[in-house]
Amino acid sequence: MTIREELERRQHTMLSPYACMDENTRGREREEPQCDIRPVFQRDRDRILHSKAFRRLKNKTQVFLTPKGDHYRTRLSHTLEVSQNARTIAKALRLNEDLVEAIALGHDLGHTPFGHAGEHVLDELCEGGFSHNEQSVRVVERLEKGGEGLNLTWEVRDGIRNHQTALMPSTLEGRIVRLSDKIAYINHDIDDAIRGKIMVEEDIPKEYREVLGNSTKERLDTLVHNIIINSMDKNDICMSPEVAKAMTGLRQFMFDNLYRGSAAKVEEAKAKELLRKLFYFYMEQPQLMPEQFTRMIDAGTHQDRVVCDYIAGMTDQYAIAKFNEYFVPLAWQVN
């Protein structure tokens, strides 16, 4: 018996009957030999962690565009906080922690430079629309490894695709990540907004603080515990009605007071215009994109989709550098 087979056997005694067992995966798009050490979801986690798209998350905006300070969240630190929350919940519920971690680490791989501002621009420009969750799946299926993709299991791709509020993953592990994503960004974005002097703790409506807590630490503790307590020994991931209502209300408060029109967003119009110019530039001169992307056009993929693939993969700094290269005279550029 291999180490992998022994680990799979242990899952039947250690994990909840509601857990998604590695040996029950629906499999990969392309069959491949099993690893003798790692079960399939651990292997997927490792593939995501070693991908170029994952490394680029460190230089992509979470909320604050190129913030002046080392402690503001980036898309990478957001991803790690989602993973930490999700693994805590999965461990307590005896669900598959490897599957949870793989989904969490991969859920934002397709996010654009400049956060949701970039996502909105590409959604306007691409004929078939653009959403970061679908793009994250496209990254792991088609764009990574020079066009080969990572060949992840169905369950990981399902969790990545369906992590947004309006969607629902098929596994409990995916549902944990879906909630953990919201728990992470609501709380760390409040923390960053307070650090940036955009709001103070007392700005949060009292009705939400009374239920969830009066600090980021208290709110995280309340939300994680509430999910665990209300999901224990159930074939579902859920919260109590009171806490769920408070979290939904707090999320809407953040949209109204931080994500739209706040001081954190004053530069978004410039970022959007920058990406529009890059899009039209590459539509006119696709040969200036890397060979991987021109090959996709030659193979029949619509050019606007390929241009979005390329731009979506850029970090904030790389997009700015390309804009300067194409549109700003050398004499005007700041060294």
The radius of gyration is 21 Å
Mean pLDDT: 95
The CATH homologous superfamily is named Hypothetical protein af1432
Low-confidence stretches: none
Query: Proportion of β residues?
Result: under 5%
CATH class membership: Mainly Alpha
Tell me the number of strands: 0
Q: Please trace the helix and strand order, writing H or E for each element.
A: HHHHHHHHHHHHHHHH
List keywords for this structure.
335 residues; mainly alpha; Hypothetical protein af1432; 16 helices; 0% strand
Write the layout of secondary structure elements.
Layout lengths: L2 H12 L25 H10 L2 H5 L18 H19 L3 H10 L8 H11 L6 H12 L10 H8 L10 H24 L10 H7 L3 H16 L9 H19 L8 H17 L6 H8 L4 H10 L3 H12 L8
Describe the structure.
This protein has 335 residues and is an all-alpha fold. It has one domain: Hypothetical protein af1432 (Orthogonal Bundle). The protein has 16 helices and no strands. The longest helix has 24 residues, at 172-195. The termini are far apart.
Short summary of the structure?
The protein has 335 residues and is mostly helical. It is 60% helix and 0% strand.
